[in-house]
Amino acid sequence: MTTRKDSSSQVLVRGYGSYTGRARRSKRVLALVTDLPLHLLAPFLSVFFLNQPPLPELHILAAWIGFSLLIHFIPRHFFGATVGGWIWGLRTFDDRGTLERATGAATRLSSWVLLLVSVQVSIGMLQSILMFHPMLRQASITALPEFSPQDTEEKDWSDLSFYFVTGSFPRQVNGEAVWYLLPYGKGPPGRFPPLVIARLPHEAGRLLIEGPRTPERLRGKRGLVRSCLTSPAPDLRLSPECLLVRRELLQRHTTDMLPSGKSPTTWELAWFEVQPGPGRVPREVEIPIGVRLTARSGTELVHRFILVHSSGRQQTISLETRATRDQPNGDLPLLEKVVRSLLVHETLDQPLAWVDLRLSRTNYGAIRGGGNLAKLAHGAALLISKATVDPADREAYFELAGLSLVLLKKAGKGLDSETVGSVSRPQAMAVQKFMRDVAIDDPRNAQLEQMLRDTKGF
Known about the structure:
alpha+beta, 2 domains, five-stranded antiparallel sheet
């Protein structure tokens, strides 16, 4: 490339116009600020459309930095300037470095206008990330009154224990039975079954009850968790300690609440506390306290209550549902009633005693022989409850397998076959795997396997 100097101080570059000399540092800064929206594009798209948390894993952070470097260096390599550099009249040459072009008043005015637009867009993108994602936003505070089924509602609810909580769980909805399932997952006999699913009728959704977890970093820090989520002061809410607390508490939930490939269009974050009536809560138990998280994608909704015990142990109860014109929040009132009825225990002694008392009053021989679907569903729920508080009890699994086989035969006879069949066979197969884990030497394993083969035609 050839150049020549005229009588002024300008440098004339053939094919590119005139440049006055080395680019001033102030113009380089202005060009960088103008480019800022492009550098924020990767985290913005990741948070909004790929459901990535704004406090990402190292490999995601590396991808964001790599994208930013590409945005900066590729235009400079091929065109000699970034978008911001072009707006501010900068050009990079291999043999002379970055030069700036002489510009008129109109060009300078348009550059300043575009800079202001760029700053506004950048601020909007940052505010959207801060206000949108629950990892950074402030949680509201919600008080929920306690719930206890009235006499007219008792037939719709069952008092059950799942893991460390006891409360009222739906037995039927609009006169149709709620089916509880214990999907297979590694855990028993030494650990808890990872999940319980309650299928609501009429495709109203699923209630998910997860096993307990205790993040070591949050052990005994419920007060700190509350402050980090609800504080209106950004310097506390976004302090390094609180960012670690939020990451430990929320990151798993924000990434797994919706099916893979779907990103929430809105989030809701609240700190909730149930307000019990006088004298209702014994000293040895706690009221439900913790986080309510809602993810919405179109009409799909997931409401999740994360119960936070004073010791730091967490247990989540979620509802997967759909929004309708009449119910914009889906069946959230049903989930709230469950949470408002709960008592949270420090140990498994009381939940186990409660379940054992209910089982001692239940005649499973009569339930299997009677064939009433509602009683079969309730009997299965009690046995699943038992498995969550005593995961090594082989009798609970075997009795649950027996009920599942009875349901399989009913499905084969056409009795509500679509619902019963979709529940009974997966449950029987899951129980078979649990039995192998809990009691590999039990001769009933072979009987169960043979019975499952015999019902393949159902």
